[in-house]
């Protein structure tokens, strides 16, 4: 049974902080969320789809229910439910803005509260393309990330498990995330050595990468019909960078690997199925905030190497995005 003594295997705790620092975090989180939620609705990709969800989620949910309980469960019913509840009170546009603002505020506040000594780095984390895009174009994933992150730091066992449990029903990538989390905890409980954990996560990534869409088709998940045919950017740039990050983490030592088993697991899963699973990046991005937070524990040259390489990679990504409408988030002309 999960209790306060075993919570460390299922998350982390926020450190104590002064009332003034909490107020600073609150104000900045509100500002971050307010700016993102106030952007014009008609200039970003997929906003029309989210407006449609807000207006017709009850129709979509009814159609999934008609196809059977399993199909309904595999097609993000909590996301649909949130849209149904909010749209019963607010307009579709206001509903979408709420689904941007509340998750953005939650993520920003938790990140800023994590370690006041790294306050400016944590602000940069919120501005990284892999993070901010979840509150601009990948809104469903942003909602799920905020739920998962709140659960990660939650100290109430039942609430923690409940929030972990509903995250996959907001965004399906969290079925993989929770699976990795469970595997990580099982391996830790069995006292697997770090090298055996790495091998296990690598084998898991290869196995999942080769079978996931066939399984999704059997279960009736919408991703089997859509995301398996979407061409994602799987160039070698991201692969090289994240393999380099993985090597830095591995060289930090056994204590770091033991304390960050889940983060290492998600990173190992990602690089092992990078070229096998086109949507592996979406799965990895669901937990990338935790990786950035874990990097704070790096020491000496490893921390310098990580931050320098991360800065180079992030600047390069933004330079590439600068050639696209609204840094890659805007509607592209046909």
TrEMBL record:
Regions crossing the membrane: 20-39, 94-112, 119-138, 158-186, 198-220, 232-250, 262-284, 304-320
The keyword Ligase is assigned to this record: no
Keyword Transmembrane: yes
Highest taxon in the source lineage: Bacteria
Swiss-Prot/TrEMBL keywords: Membrane, Transmembrane, Transmembrane helix
InterPro entries linked: EpsG-like
Pfam families for the chain: EpsG (PF14897)
Protein name, as recorded: EpsG family protein
Organism: Arsukibacterium tuosuense
């Amino acid at each position: 049974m999960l209790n306060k003594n075993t919570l460390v295997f299922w998350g982390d705790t926020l450190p104590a902080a002064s009332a003034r620092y909490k107020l600073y975090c609150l104000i900045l989180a509100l500002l971050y969320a307010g700016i993102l939620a106030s952007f014009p609705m008609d200039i970003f990709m997929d906003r029309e789809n989210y407006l449609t969800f807000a207006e017709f989620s009850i129709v979509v949910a009814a159609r999934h229910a008609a196809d059977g309980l399993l199909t309904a469960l595999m097609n993000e019913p909590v996301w649909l439910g949130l849209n149904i509840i909010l749209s019963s009170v607010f307009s579709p546009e206001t509903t979408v803005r709420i689904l941007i603002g509340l998750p953005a505020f939650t993520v920003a506040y938790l990140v800023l509260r994590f370690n006041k000594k790294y306050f400016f780095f944590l602000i940069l984390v919120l501005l990284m393309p892999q993070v901010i895009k979840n509150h601009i174009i990948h809104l469903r994933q942003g909602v799920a990330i905020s739920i998962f992150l709140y659960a990660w730091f939650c100290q109430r066992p039942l609430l923690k498990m409940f929030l972990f449990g509903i995250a996959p029903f907001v965004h399906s990538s969290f079925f993989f995330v929770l699976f990795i989390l469970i595997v990580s905890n099982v391996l830790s409980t069995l006292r697997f050595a770090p090298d055996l954990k790495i091998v296990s996560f690598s084998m898991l990534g290869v196995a999942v990468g080769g079978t996931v869409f066939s399984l999704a088709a059997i279960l009736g998940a919408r991703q089997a019909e859509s995301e398996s045919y979407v061409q994602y950017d799987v160039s070698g740039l991201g692969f090289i960078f994240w393999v380099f990050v993985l090597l830095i983490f591995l060289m930090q030592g056994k204590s770091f690997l033991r304390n960050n088993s889940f983060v290492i697991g998600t990173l190992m899963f990602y690089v092992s199925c990078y070229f096998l699973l086109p949507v592996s990046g979406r799965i990895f991005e669901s937990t990338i905030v935790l990786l950035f937070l874990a990097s704070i524990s790096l020491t000496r040259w490893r921390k310098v190497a990580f931050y320098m390489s991360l800065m180079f990679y992030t600047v390069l990504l933004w330079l590439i995005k600068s050639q696209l409408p609204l840094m890659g988030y805007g509607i592209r002309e046909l």
